[in-house]
Amino acid sequence: MTGLSDSFQRPINYLRISVTDRCNLRCIYCMPAGGVELRPHSDILSYEEIHNVARAAAELGINKLRVTGGEPLVRLGLSRLIEMLAGIEAIDDIALTTNGVLLADYAAELKAAGLKRVNISLDTLKYDRFKRITRGESELSQVLEGIEAAKRVGLEPVKLNMVVMSGINDDELLDFAAKTIDQDWHVRFIELMPVNGEDSAPRFVAAAEMRKRLESLGELEPCLPAVGNGPAKYFRFANAKGTIGFITPVSEHFCFNCNRMRLTADGKLRPCLLSDYEIDLKQPLRDGVSKAGLKKLFKKAVAEKPLRHKLAEGEVPSRRPFSHVGG
Ligand code: SAM
Q1: Mind listing the pLDDT tens digit of every residue in the chain (327 residues)?
Q2: Of 119, 133, 146, 224, which sits 20 to 30 A from 301 (CA to CA)?
């Protein structure tokens, strides 16, 4: 197997796969109130098609996969896809990003199918606020049960992703941080990104500001050696059981270490979350493209990966909501 790198010599070994554009929540920072236009089912890649792409990618050097969405657990039979992906020899890590609402129902079968770990979105610990942020019929208790189920079956480490929004949930920063002291909670605070053409500036809280507020609980020590090779920078309070991560797409982009490609639910290969360049794989797949042909298309998309996004400069290129792209 040869390594894969882009035109800036960044090693590319990670593919995020969005399996659906559908979601059982409509979080205020992700979707417009009226929801988003959904693709017809025939536009969504089948599990066999996703497997074909992942196999070709693995032969090029991809060894980490993350399944996301939309909400991946609303797609029927997701464990079957996980099992198919886990069967690809070169793949040594398969993770899932989920809102956790359905996780308690599926955690055991996902683990048995070969899933290694989960990231769960959790933006509040308050029951009524959960309803307001997610604008859905689901309950916070379902997510908390999902977290417990993931831990019980060993889908670890469970990472909790909180998108921090001024005036919406930033008053809970300390509550989340406190959970990392006496429990093995791994909380990642994410800076709000602008999506759907909305101005996120009034709700934006920079990670430096979050950190300042958290330090009222004690000094945050960097986790050494550095945890993972993802975008988060990790810290912990002295003697804490869990960790705190900051993800700073806006105040301090991490593009220079970006190792990812994305496959959208409708079969587009997308080198950057925040750039609209995409290569279509769905039609070639349905026209019977060979594995060699798929690999060629994959390499072409990797070669087009931009050096960095320009969010800090106010450029918001994405016309597609994150639920389509797989945020
Ligand atoms: N449904 C799954 C979930 O809720 O985790 C997966 C899809 S969701 C689009 C993936 C991630 O994107 C979540 O962690 C969510 O918090 C993040 N996200 C969505 N909109 C965002 C925004 N405007 N700014 C920062 N992160 C965002």
Answers
A1: 458 999 999 999 999 999 999 999 999 999 888 888 889 999 999 999 999 999 999 999 999 999 999 999 999 999 999 999 999 999 999 999 999 999 999 999 999 999 999 999 999 999 999 999 999 889 999 999 999 999 999 999 999 999 999 999 999 999 999 999 999 999 999 999 988 777 888 999 999 999 999 999 999 999 976 666 688 999 999 999 999 999 999 999 889 999 999 999 999 999 999 888 999 999 999 999 999 999 999 999 999 999 998 777 777 766 677 777 777
A2: 119
How crowded is residue 188: how many other Cβ atoms within 10 Å of its Cβ? Answer: 21
Q: What are the pocket residues of ligand 1 if the criterion is a CB atom closer than 6 Å to any ligand atom? A: 23, 29-30, 68-69, 71, 97-99, 121, 161, 163, 190, 192-193, 195, 322-323, 327
| CA pair distance 212, 244, nearest whole angstrom | 13
- Give the span between the Cα atoms of 240 and 257, in whole angstroms: 28
Nearest atom (ligand 1) to Cα of 23: 1
On whether the pTM is more than 0.90, the answer is yes
Helix or strand run (H / E) with residue 50: helix 47-60
Task: Tell me the best of 24, 28, 120, 161 to mutate to test the pocket of ligand 1, counting ligand atoms within 8 Å of each CB and taking the most.
Answer: 161
- Decide if 322 contacts 83 (C-beta within 8 A): no
